[in-house]
Amino acid sequence: MRQIKAQSGRTPPALSRKRSGPSPLLAFIPRPLAAGRRSALMAIKYSELELAINTMVTEFHKAADDAPTMNTTQFQTFVSKQMPLIAKTVETEEGLGQLLQQMGIKNGENISFTDFWKLINKQAVEVFNNTDKQQDVKCSCLLQ
């Protein structure tokens, strides 16, 4: 199997390891390529943004033991390892409960990638609003 290198020289993790199912990156590839034109896929150079998306998908599923959802213990470990800016929030049961509530997770429910994406949206808006930027740029991103 030939390794695909991104512009940064890194191989996207979801494309470098063997998976039993389809690669999560296939959702971001135009349909004709996902349908079977693998040789064209090999020529694609991934941007830093695409690699970041791939990393989020890959790390989520790795933390969920390749399942479509993760339980709260897996989620707490995942956030502690991968999201240091909010890791302190989930150190306590109360903090974890508040974060899950903000994501719309009810007590005892597992966390899906869609739920995780709500957290990413919230964090992206927060980070954007707290960084230096042009005065006329404002973020009002809403996840649908």
Automatic annotation (TrEMBL):
Matches recorded under InterPro entries: EF-hand-dom_pair, S100_Ca-bd_sub
Domain (S100/CaBP-9k-type calcium binding subdomain): residue spans on this chain: 49-88
Region of interest: Disordered: 1-23
UniProt protein name: S100/CaBP-9k-type calcium binding subdomain domain-containing protein
Entries under SUPFAM superfamilies matching the protein: EF-hand
Biased composition (Polar residues): 1-10
SMART domains given in the database record: S_100
